[in-house]
Amino acid sequence: MSTAAILNALELGIIYALVAFALYLSFRVLNIADMTTDGSFTLGCAVSATMAVAGHPYLAIPAAMAAGACAGTVTALLQTKCKIPSILAGIITNTGLYSVNLAVMGFSSNVSMLRTATIFTPFMGRKLLLALMITLIAGVFLVVFLSTRLGLSIRATGDNPDMVRASSINTAVTITIGLAVANAMTALSGAVLAQYQRTADISMGTGMVIIGLASLIMGETILRKGKIAMKVLGALLGCILYRLIIAVALRLDLPSECLKLVSAVIVAVAIAVPAMKKSKGGA
């Protein structure tokens, strides 16, 4: 495999790691299967591309994160206020986001940024450095955030919501904040990826849950024990490993249509192997 292919896999792995961070917060910490991920990722892409074309590539990043946080908030409100199951709440929001994303992109299925300045323009030849800086800042933020009093309340909500309610903590608030932060990170990943690839497409978020879960589970296999910082580091390493596997699959001349199947197999193997080892150990 060429150096360029490895570098590209590293850059994409580092950018997609933000989705793994988001799923760690929602899936592992809050114990919620958040299906808003695909739509939030595309929303980040759409907002980022539209604002970059308008001449504001740097403002596009916080704007995309704010949009993602709004999407997460809607999902949380459907779950906590309307009493809709978490999976259905995410699916409902994700479905509505398709139209929202089209509207953001001017009712076009894609936005090109080939002649547009992006956040990567000053970093030509050093894109890996910028992507790594953004991901590390997000990772440090997540670790620090989950160590605060609010973060501890969010972690407790995922572990034992009944105990949290008995402690006079409003679980609706902790769930809403948790999902808002998670989807802001997902949208950040989409925003960075759109400017990295200089394009945004309405289908860019398809299968993002699978990619994030595969990376998260592979990271947990690599670093099985440790505190939050190790879990976040594991998610980053898992995402990089996932992209390297995809790069190898491409080098083997597998049709691009088969990449989703490869992703599904990776997730299945990553989940099955540790579970099988644990069951054998217990036997």
Keywords:
283 residues, single chain, mainly alpha
Describe this structure in words.
This protein has 283 residues and is mostly helical. The protein has one domain (3-205). It is 74% helix and 2% strand. The protein has 11 helices and 2 strands. It has a two-stranded antiparallel sheet with strand order 1-2.
Short description:
By secondary structure, the chain is mostly helical.
Helix and strand topology:
Elements: H1 3-29, H2 37-53, H3 60-80, H4 86-104, E1 110-112, H5 127-145, H6 149-159, H7 161-166, H8 171-197, E2 199-201, H9 208-222, H10 228-251, H11 259-282
Antiparallel strand pairs: 1-2
Strand content: under 5%
| DSSP strand count | 2
Structural class: mainly alpha
Tell me the strand order in the biggest sheet: 1-2
Helix content: over 70%
User: Oligomeric state of the chains?
Assistant: single chain
What number of structural domains do the residues give? 1
Rg value: 19 Å
Taking pLDDT < 50 over at least 5 consecutive residues as the criterion, the unreliable ranges are none
Global morphology? globular
Q: Mean of residue pLDDT?
A: 90
How many alpha or pi helices? 11
Distance between the termini: 41 Å
Run of helices and strands: HHHHEHHHHEHHH
Main sheet attributes: strand count, strand direction, barrel closure: 2 strands, antiparallel
